[in-house]
Amino acid sequence: MTADIEASGGKAGWISLEHVATAIAVAAFCASVAFYFLQRHDALILQRNQNTIAMMQIAYTENVFAAKNRVNRFIRANKKLYESAFLAAQTRKPFAVNIPDGTLDDFLTLADFYNTVVICREAKSCNPAMIDTLFKGDLCSFIGNAKLIGIPQLVPDYGPDLGRNLLSYEQRECIGS
Fold first, then answer.
1. pTM of the full predicted structure?
2. Cα–Cα dist 76/82, whole Å
3. End-to-end Cα spacing for the chain
């Protein structure tokens, strides 16, 4: 037995204090790394929620809110025009309509705002569930109307990408829901 103790350097099966200290240091390091990533995840969730709240605040700025009200009045006042645009879209016939410049500007304001909301949602810079809760109804309603009258009249001046994200969102989130 004494030969065994002498062969092991006099430690007789004990773990050295140095090994214990190293194991504790490694465990503390791993715990701090895990804590860091948990904090980062919490910070990311908080940032997404803050971005979503910022979108809601923008929705109620005078510019966006007034544009929404004017576009809604235009849509209600022109139901027959929208019915004709819908039928033309179903039969793929061209449909021309003149929209007053102020109303066209309102459509552009809303298309730009809702495009920003959709991009924020898709990039997960905002909280997708909160975006859907707060904006899905308005988004689907706006896109459904603006794709018939509003966006088509803006495309010649602003390019074919205008409304593309909105139409993609409509296909994924609005159709059938």
1. 0.75
2. 9
3. 79
